[in-house]
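Ticket #4471: structure output looks truncated?

Reporter: J.K.
Steps to reproduce: submitted the chain below (108 residues) through the standard prediction queue, then opened the result file.
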Amino acid sequence: ERHAPSLRAFFSFVDLNDSKGLEVSEIKHLLKSLTAANDRGASYGLAGLDVVRLSEVFLSILDIDKNHLVDLWELQRQIALAAPPGASLVELVSHFEMKYGHGRVGAV
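Returned output as attached by the reporter:
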């Protein structure tokens, strides 16, 4: 979080060899740094996990085109599926129309 204020910055931070794709070794390096950093691994729930196996699982989940690299677009897509963007203005207007009856045709 400290080194990466955006997803693109996080991707660049984790992509150690600037290959424009995350390899299993880079994911493994990230997970090892999380588990080793000042015993914060326990707070992340990573203590005692097999980092090698976990990095392989992450790669298999995130790698959509199965080229053994996680590209930025793949990471963006998977995160968008897991955490959709906030409500849009259209959704808010529709909600208030339903709740308070504004915009109803034939309302008295």
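Triage note (M.O.): checked the attachment and the full token line is present. The mean pLDDT is 76.
Status: closed, working as intended.
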